[in-house]
Write a structure and sequence with these properties.
Number of domains: 1
CATH class: Alpha Beta
Helix content: 10-25%
Radius of gyration: 15 Å
Order of helices and strands: EHEEEEEHHHEEE
Structural class: alpha+beta
CATH architecture: Roll
Strand content: 25-35%
Number of helices: 4
Shape: globular
CATH superfamily: Methylpurine-DNA glycosylase (MPG)
CATH topology: 3-methyladenine DNA Glycosylase, Chain A
């Protein structure tokens, strides 16, 4: 079995598009009620700071988005449409806002528990478990109240990203989805050919 190591803070000290691309193939790992839930990251989106109209940091630092302006490697979780949580990881050096939205996972560990958290039939399609940012958070039990501001570079945090040496064979780059501002920028990265990428 390949050795898995938690990504260091230095991994996230780069522009969001570089981090978003580099995160593909890594494992998002969550400790949940004495179980491990894990999925391989197959889709990401990059968001810059003050020069990106689609970014939460665009209007400047607030209490809500303060994580984005802090050190890299921290979880920024927000609530959208009154029903979904979305998980982002801060990047760029401290004081310079930027983040990567995790859009989809290929479930690899704790699949039965993730299926239950999603409210899906146990023998249904595994593609539906975490294909989309809202589904991803629901499948791993991630909420703003419990995970916003967590240091994902720490083994003690219960939520981190690991590298097991696996590399995606091909990466597709497209404009970001589900936004109106700066929608034309090619800042969505996906594992080409993966059936777990969101539709």
């Amino acid at each position: 079995m390949p050795r898995r190591t938690i990504l260091s803070r230095a991994f996230y000290e780069h522009p969001p598009d570089a981090v978003a691309r580099a995160l593909l193939g890594k494992l998002l790992v969550r400790r949940f009620e004495r179980r491990i839930l894990a999925g391989r990251i197959v889709e990401t989106e990059a968001y810059f700071g003050l020069d990106d109209p689609a970014a939460h940091a665009f209007a400047g630092k607030t209490k809500r988005n303060a994580v984005l302006f802090g050190p890299p490697g921290f979880a920024y979780v927000y609530f959208i449409y009154g029903m979904h949580f979305c998980l982002n990881i801060s990047c760029e050096p401290e004081g310079q806002a930027g983040c990567v939205l995790l859009r989809a996972l290929e479930p690899v560990e704790g699949i039965a528990a993730m299926t239950q958290l999603r409210g899906l039939a146990q023998h249904g399609s595994s593609r539906l478990i975490a294909s989309g940012p809202g589904r991803l958070c629901q499948a791993l039990g991630i909420t703003r109240e419990t995970h916003n501001g967590i240091d994902v570079t720490s083994s003690r945090s219960g939520l981190h990203i690991e590298d097991d040496g696996w590399l995606p064979p091909e990466i597709a780059v497209t404009p970001r989805v589900g936004i109106r501002k700066a929608a034309e920028r090619p800042l969505r990265f996906a594992m080409a050919g993966s059936r777990f990428v969101s539709r």
